[in-house]
């Protein structure tokens, strides 16, 4: 296939300008994707950090509330026992007023209870069926809970987290704070008051916030991905490509025209001279470059040809006249 | 003698810049028209030669170029 120099120059210049543009476009697209992914990941990390911080703060607040509740109930027990020094444990268990003092709700999922501080036998509980249960039996089934109770020997306050099966049978973390009331019953029983509650009750608001944050993040990530794809690939790159193609084509046309124009004139002149047409052979090419040199050389050759042709013609005429 | 030959080569070279390979034959013609042999051309008798160059070169090259070449030849020294 015959291609003119101008076509080849235009094609080369277009290729030279478009290849880097394509590479640049691909790199920009990747950068945009990386940037958007990084922003989404950073936002996700910030969300997770804030949720962790919120959960920690709420849990700390909840445990403080549990401690306060256990201490308050223990103080109320001491006051009640000071007012009723003749009541035995059995009397107190039959006393609805004392029952109401010892068994109080803690939050939405917890309650207070009391046990014999020495024998660990439950004396008061929101579930009447648990009254009389010896918590030593938990040694095997719930060692963390048992260890927590055991650490209270000497009537010191104890607190900690342990696993506990809820009403549905699922095991959840539960926090408990245990305080021994400072006054004994008439039969010398010291009561250990405990307030316990499931920990996830405290972190429920944080979990709801976390769900909302995750929902917003997912929507934001989808929007970023969509916008990145749409803007980068369809608009910016396309416009840049078209603009560069237009500019490159214009520049290539002008440059190639400045090169091929004089060459075409030389070619036309050479055509005419090769056909014997020696009229109007002046070359109006004044380029200060290789094409100018070529035109000057070509001009000298034509002058020589004209000279020798005229000389040959005059010699021929002289010969005919002779 | 060598200086004269060098001078004649300089004249032919000057002509060749505008006339190309026909410069040597053109120089012979111009010398003949001036009434001398090109081999005898020297700075002392170059005026007639240069005048003929200026007159006859215009048939092949622009008048300005012909005048310029003739003037250069006039000023050439061996």
From TrEMBL, chain B:
Q: What is this protein called?
A: Uncharacterized protein
Which organism encodes this protein? Methanofollis liminatans DSM 4140
């Amino acid at each position: 296939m015959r291609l003119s120099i101008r076509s080849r120059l235009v094609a080369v210049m277009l290729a030279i300008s478009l290849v880097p543009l394509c590479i640049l476009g691909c790199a920009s697209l990747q950068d945009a994707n990386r940037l958007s992914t990084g922003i989404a990941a950073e936002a996700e990390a910030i969300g997770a950090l804030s949720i962790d911080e919120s959960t920690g703060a709420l849990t700390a607040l909840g445990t403080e509330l549990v401690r306060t509740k256990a201490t308050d109930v223990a103080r109320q027990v001491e006051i009640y026992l000071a007012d009723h020094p003749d009541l035995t444990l059995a009397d107190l268990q039959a006393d609805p007023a004392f029952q109401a003092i010892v068994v109080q709700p803690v939050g939405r999922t917890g309650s207070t209870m009391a046990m014999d501080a020495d024998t660990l036998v439950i004396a008061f509980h929101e579930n009447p069926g648990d009254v009389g249960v010896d918590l030593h039996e938990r040694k095997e089934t719930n060692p963390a809970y048992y260890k927590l109770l055991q650490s209270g020997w000497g009537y010191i306050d104890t607190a900690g987290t342990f696993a506990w099966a809820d009403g549905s049978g699922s095991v959840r973390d539960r926090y408990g704070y245990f305080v021994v009331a400072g006054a004994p019953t008439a039969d010398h029983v010291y009561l250990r008051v405990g307030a316990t509650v499931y920990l996830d009750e405290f972190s429920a608001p944080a979990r709801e916030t976390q769900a909302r944050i995750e929902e917003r993040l997912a929507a934001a990530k989808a929007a970023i991905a969509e916008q990145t794809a749409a803007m980068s690939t369809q608009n910016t790159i396309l416009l840049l490509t078209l603009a560069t193609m237009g500019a490159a084509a214009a520049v290539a046309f002008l440059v190639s025209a400045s090169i091929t124009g004089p060459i075409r004139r030389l070619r036309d002149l050479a055509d005419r001279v090769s056909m014997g047409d020696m009229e109007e052979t002046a070359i109006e090419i004044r380029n200060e470059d290789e094409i100018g040199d070529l035109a000057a050389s070509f001009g000298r050759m034509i002058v020589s040809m004209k000279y020798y042709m005229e000389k040959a013609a005059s010699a021929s005429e002289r010969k005919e006249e002779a | 003698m060598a200086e004269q030959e060098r001078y004649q080569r300089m004249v032919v070279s000057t002509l060749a810049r505008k006339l190309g390979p026909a410069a040597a034959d053109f120089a012979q013609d111009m010398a003949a028209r001036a009434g001398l042999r090109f081999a005898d051309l020297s700075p002392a008798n170059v005026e007639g030669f240069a005048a003929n160059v200026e007159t006859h070169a215009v048939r092949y090259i622009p008048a300005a170029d012909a005048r310029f070449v003739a003037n250069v030849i006039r000023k050439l020294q061996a």
